[in-house]
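Onboarding guide, step 5: your first structure request.
Type a short instruction followed by the sequence, for example:

Predict the 3D structure of this protein.
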Amino acid sequence: MKLQGLILNPETKQLATFLAEKTFERYRNNFGHYRNTAKSHLVGHLGEFAAFIWLRDNHFAPSPTFLDSTKDRECDIQTNVARIEVKTWSEQHWEKWGRCVSASQFASIKKKADLILWLSVDGVESKTPTVTFRGWCEVGIFEGMPTIMTGDVGREVCNLQLDPSQLKPVEEMRSYEPRRNLANCH
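The system replies with structure tokens like these:
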């Protein structure tokens, strides 16, 4: 599969940084599914902005729910095709953590999203990070999948992880047939 990349401009990086600071402060004392750091919030928001830009430029009419931190129980991006959850890792962690959904997070993702868009970010500290679109999948692909421990020794997380071959190229999102009413993200 040929991967697509997107170089974010400095203004988008600034917006992602602002949003990351805001969400990190809000969740700083919460222990979530993965490490809760300012950098992990930034990686996630860089991916969300890149996903939004790609979806907009490819006529998916995206609505960026991720911009409102009070809507964190909704999908990240609503489109004319599906409700999308965006999962992003830094490039250096893609092999170990990429394609993972925390077992404890799966039920909430299943309620709020139809698809997961998978991305990685290189140059997180740069003014112009590069986001790579790794692929997408339907949320239901994880149903009944056995859990595995992934990550660095001592910081493993109980995850559901796809094999890279299970990711579909982003260009194929147009052929996705929604299985439910997409009237809202809830």
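Each response can be followed by summary notes, for example: The radius of gyration is 15 Å.
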